[in-house]
Amino acid sequence: MAVYINQPMFPVDFLRPKQARFDNPGSGFDGGVNGVGEPISIETSGGGIITATYSEMVLEGPDERFEVLNWLGARLNGGFRFINVPVVNDKIGPFPVIRGTRRPIITGIPHSDGSLFSDGSGYSQASVYGEIAEDAALNAGILSMRVYGAARGVFRWSDFFSISHPTKGWRVYRSWELLDKTDEENPVYRLALAPPLREAVAVGTRVELARPRCVMKLPKGVTIPWEYSGWYSSRPTVQFTEAF
User: Fold this and answer.
1) Contact assessment for residue 224 and residue 77, using Cβ atoms and an 8 Å cutoff
2) Interior CA angle at 26 toward 22 and 30, to 5°?
3) Mean pLDDT of 5-21
């Protein structure tokens, strides 16, 4: 049986990709044509899959990044082991501006007595997060969540967010329509969801809007080779598809 929980995180910051791509293919298929020859689209029950690509990662010189790339190939080649892949939404999410830039994560939080750790660092936490406001079943296409700390209207168009399911692990979602919103400091949003829920959720389940992540694997026929040119210069690309 596949294990989707407790998977490591893809080290996107360390590997420094120049480009990222996230998609949701397979959401529908043609079901014949109508009387004027136009195809009739039908939604698939699962709502497609989430895919991700990190391109042109900057590996320069014989450093630890090549070791990490080798580890990724050893772990993921074959597509039967999984890894959590983050969606880097740091600059476009509904995060507050702190010290001149959007901050999805607040750092340097002290202990209750105002002290920090011995190295001068403190605790950290997401600046914006949500909680499920109503129970929702497997494959539900509508979700209600309360959002805390948002600096702008969340889901005014759409935002990626993720839920850690007890069996299916981390899964990424986004809204395609805002159905309703309460008028209060931390509003409840009622959203049309894509893809549908991968597992039922209960009231109070936490929702992550900062660096959402999804448990993924390599697509069929895709590997992570170790290759370089010159003095260990490489710009590898890695593709992922949602793990099932």
Assistant:
1) yes
2) 145
3) 95
Buried residues in 15-40 as b, exposed as e (16+ CB within 10 A): bebeeeebebebeeeeeeeeeeeeee
Do the Cβ atoms of 160 and 94 come closer than 8 Å?
no
Predicted pLDDT at 212: 95
What residue ranges in the chain does DSSP mark as E strands? 19-23, 28-33, 39-43, 51-55, 59-60, 83-86, 97-98, 101-102, 105-109, 123-126, 129-132, 142-148, 160-165, 169-181, 188-194, 206-208, 213-217, 233-234, 238-242
DSSP 147-167: EES-SS-TTSS--EEEEEETT
The b/e string for 206-228 (b: 16+ C-beta within 10 A; e otherwise) is: ebbbbbbbbbbbbeeeeebeeeb
User: Rounded to two decimals, what is the model's pTM?
Assistant: 0.86
61 vs 63: CA distance, rounded Å: 6
Neighbours of 109 (CB within 10 A): 11
pLDDT in tens, 141-176: 999 999 998 888 888 889 999 999 999 999 999 999
Sequence letter at residue 161? F
| pLDDT of 109 higher than 80 | no
Type of residue at 32: G
Give tens-digit pLDDT for 57-102.
998 888 899 999 999 999 999 999 999 999 999 888 888 777 777 7
- A 10 A CB-CB count for 80 gives 10
